[in-house]
Amino acid sequence: MRPPEVILDNADIVYDYYRAHRQNRLKAWGAYALLGRRYHPRVVFAPEAREQVRALVKSGRPTIYSINHLSQNDPYTVAAAAWRSPLRPIIGRVRVLAKDELFVEPDQRAKVDMMGGIPVFRGKDHGIRAVNAAGQLMMDLCAQRLAQGDHLAIFPEGTCNDVDPTQVQAVGSGIGHIAFRAMKLGVAPALVSLGLSYGPRADPAVEPTKEEAKSALFYLGNPVAELPAKPADIARLVRADLQIALDGAVANY
Prior knowledge:
Glycerol-3-phosphate (1)-acyltransferase; 7-stranded mixed β-sheet; 7 strands; 1-acyl-sn-glycerol-3-phosphate acyltransferase; transferase; acyltransferase activity; Plipid/glycerol_acylTrfase; acyltransferase
């Protein structure tokens, strides 16, 4: 199937395509390795988290990785951190939610597809009502990919935090609905929070440069094995757990 044009009016066809899409794992490994050399994030762990994350990865259990969002460089630093951490074995099996505009330019889309991207039509770009049906399709798709054994990486704040890089901003219910729908498909996804810090920012509205982003620090929290039964409760847990991880990143920077 040829890749469809990623536009809102085409959402049903777009998500049909990404339901079956598979990454080229060899190319993904090469790309992550390259980013691991270009960026040099430090990766630290909550007590016992290194062993817990390694065991979780080895088990193959579908996992949702939640990361706070600070800059346009985040996907690159996250990829570099994955390469330089116990997450390396799952490279090529992680789907990453990415805004639809990243799928417009062909060369860029090829890279995003190779990295496991799934397009998201955001309410802030198209209007809340306009994206409702597409959002439902996207959440169903993510739940199905988890049920198929994939993992999912999400910036649950939905947009870059230009308010306070030490505080997780509002988390929408989408991540809760994805986990809830995966459970209805018979999957019990785990949750791992990655707190990201680029160090103290004089002005949080000014993103770190690429050179500054090379000094990123990630703090991996202890995996959460049991999630609540309701989407809203899952979303609240995600925000609280991600704040703990972000506090760890800030404290260890």
